[in-house]
Amino acid sequence: MACQSVNPSTESNDAQPVQSSPTVKKEKEEKSFATQIIEAAREGRMIFVDFPIGTPVQKVLKEWGTPEGGDPSLLIYEKSKFCGFYSRDTQQITAIRSVHPQLKKLSLQQIQQELGNPEKKGSEFGDNYILYKLGNYQISFYYTGDRVNAIYL
Prior knowledge:
The chain is of the alpha+beta class. It has three helices and seven strands; from the N terminus they run H-H-E-E-E-H-E-E-E-E.
């Protein structure tokens, strides 16, 4: 399967072992997960998706097969929780949306601790979002309550 698995590191760099409560361990795992998402986004990649922005549509079709839905400029792969938007002119992926269930591990507080105040806050299609500029890309974290439920890059 083309989805990458994520195994956030919970190892400490301290020389002496430290006992952590389950809450502290969970926060470390989530922060590590947030960092992985942010680092990938800076490179035009989405965690859990093998295809960065700029990937030719034919490569996606060759590796993942026929999409399970979409329209002439959208590829939907429900099993992978991935939507790829592409330009009909260039036939390359121009945006990626992920609704992977592991995204619910992230809280808005963690994202804001990593990235600071967002460039923009808004609401779209019934979901709230916060948007950040990361190098040549923008990433939007869609959320319900204080938990992320989708990412758009």
